[in-house]
Design a protein that fits this description.
two-stranded antiparallel ribbon; about 5% strand
Length: about 500
């Protein structure tokens, strides 16, 4: 099983396309569907109908006569084009209510819509008949959104690391996740049963080597994305040079033709963006962006050496800011998942990780074991020496537990003087050996605090998912709560049987 499959199985609940999108896709896949049948499906949603008619009558299509019905629109622009327009509207709308956090959803869709308009216009310019090009370009980076929504913390780290190391988004995603957003987007769209003519160019549009049958479309998507970056990036001049070079190399565009295309994209995008309920925020024409950049350069009365120095300092400052942000995010993670007194993982983190480990154990048919530990007579320590001394005991025992277990094991403070240790890939026999090592280690611990020397012991309860193989009542230990309950009962027996001992949960 690949890391990508693990990601979807463990972390990601794939969003489903809206019901109307499913009906549209189903209708188009049926060869006998007529123009009117597709129009009837769309007509159920008045707002969608109004948007499609408005777009059809806009300068984007520049049709000679006004269009006043969906059936007429379908006849003029074609079934596939109508389908893709409708899909584009409902998919963007479907993600509008997604939790954003630090992710700028409006910015994401502005970039995507500008890219889609760029692809459509470029496709017409080079006379490449591709009815799917608009929706393909619109969704080419949908994997970025899915990765963020699935794991906001990890993807925020991707963005932080990208700012620090200067690598591409894909390279940084690969380091963090083991795969990139093009693979995630492809997987999602295939799950939605979109055609290969949409999914495959998205999968390969960043690749240097592209399969022959998708090479032209993937290259077109790549150029459309670069055109979009001119309007939203911080390096418009550099992006403009890249686009001019790409258009000249791929389609033999002259500099004038390239500039005209880029300018037209800005004009058309504003009109289209409003139909998606995305504020265009007065996009500047490309010529104005370039003129302002040149004017600003003209006002800088710096020598070459001074400019290089300024750029170097700005880069160092940006890298430091990104590093500080990454460090702050890591500290926030620690605050969210660490116990303030002991530094161990807290109860919340334990519950999340334990559930994930149980899912892995079930899927791969591997055991996972759980230890519950309780410091014996801890109330006596508090009552005799005071709570500050009790806190010192908790901290010393916590530090020792981390040293005694393996690197793959997870130690958490479950609550009060009680601890939990998750033992992945560990059956009953190995878990018992480790539990005895922990028990003996604590027994030998001498805690120095002020003028006191204190020793404590722990009672340990052990349960393992492996036990379900030896029990007729197999389903009870498959859930998180059942295994915790078994460990807790074993701990209770250890307390009743004299403390400072290990008890193993009884199967069933």
């Amino acid at each position: 099983m690949t890391m990508l499959q693990d990601f979807f199985n463990e972390k990601t609940k794939l969003p489903s396309p809206p019901a109307i999108a499913l009906k549209i896709l189903s209708a188009v896949r049926q060869d006998e569907s007529t123009f009117n049948e597709l129009a009837d499906i769309i007509a159920v949603d008045p707002a969608l109908t109004a948007r499609i008619l408005k777009l059809t009558n806009s300068s984007y299509y520049s049709l000679p006569n006004p269009v006043d019905s969906l059936s007429q629109a379908t006849a003029l622009i074609g079934t596939k084009t109508l389908k893709n327009i409708a899909l584009s509207f409902v998919i963007v709308q479907g993600f509008q209510d997604a939790p954003q956090g630090s992710f700028d959803l409006d910015f994401f869709w502005k970039r995507a819509i500008t890219s889609a308009v760029s692809a459509e216009m470029l496709s017409k310019k080079v006379q490449s008949r591709d009815d799917d090009i608009f929706v393909s370009s619109l969704l080419q980076d949908i994997g970025v959104l899915i990765m963020f929504l699935s794991d906001p913390s990890a993807y925020t780290e991707v963005l932080d690391n990208k700012r620090i190391n200067g690598k591409t988004t894909r390279a940084t995603e690969e380091e963090q996740f083991g795969f990139d957003h093009t693979e995630v987007g492809y997987h999602l769209l295939k799950t939605w049963n979109l055609s290969d003519t949409i999914c495959c160019p998205i999968r390969y549009h960043h690749n240097r080597e592209k399969p022959k049958q998708y090479r032209d479309t993937a290259r077109l998507l790549q150029l459309a994305d670069s055109i979009s970056a001119i309007y939203y990036g911080t390096e418009s001049n550099r992006k403009s040079i890249e686009v001019h070079s790409g258009l000249a190399e791929t389609y033999q565009f002259t500099p004038e033709q390239s500039a005209e295309l880029i300018d037209s994209v800005g004009e058309k995008t504003q009109e289209v963006m409003e139909l998606f309920n995305i504020p265009p925020d007065d996009m500047k024409p490309f010529s104005q962006i370039m003129q302002e950049a040149n004017d600003e350069l003209g006002r800088l009365n710096f020598s070459y050496e001074q400019i290089v120095l300024e750029l170097k300092q700005a880069k160092q400052h940006a890298e430091q800011l990104a590093f500080n942000l990454k460090e702050a995010n890591e500290n926030l993670k620690k605050l969210a998942f660490r116990d303030g007194l002991t530094g161990l993982y807290n109860h919340r983190y334990f519950q999340e990780v334990f559930e994930a480990e149980l899912q892995k154990a079930t899927r791969f048919n591997h055991p996972v074991s759980l230890l519950f530990l309780d410091i014996d007579h801890f109330k006596t320590v508090n009552d005799t020496y005071g709570h500050p001394t009790g806190d010192e005991v908790l901290k010393n025992v916590s530090q020792l537990l981390v040293k005694l277990v393996r690197k793959c094991d997870i130690v958490a403070r479950y609550g009060g003087e009680e601890f939990a240790v998750i033992l992945p890939e560990t059956g009953t026999v190995s878990a018992k050996v480790l539990a005895q090592r922990v028990r003996r280690g604590v027994e030998q611990l001498l805690i120095q605090y002020n003028d006191l020397t204190i020793s404590v012991t722990v009672s340990v309860g052990l349960a393992s998912s492996e036990m379900r193989k030896n029990s007729e009542s197999r389903s009870t230990l498959e859930s998180r709560s059942a295994l915790i309950s078994q460990s807790d009962q074993a701990l209770y027996r250890a307390k009743n049987n004299g403390r400072n001992r290990v008890e193993i949960a009884q199967a069933g």
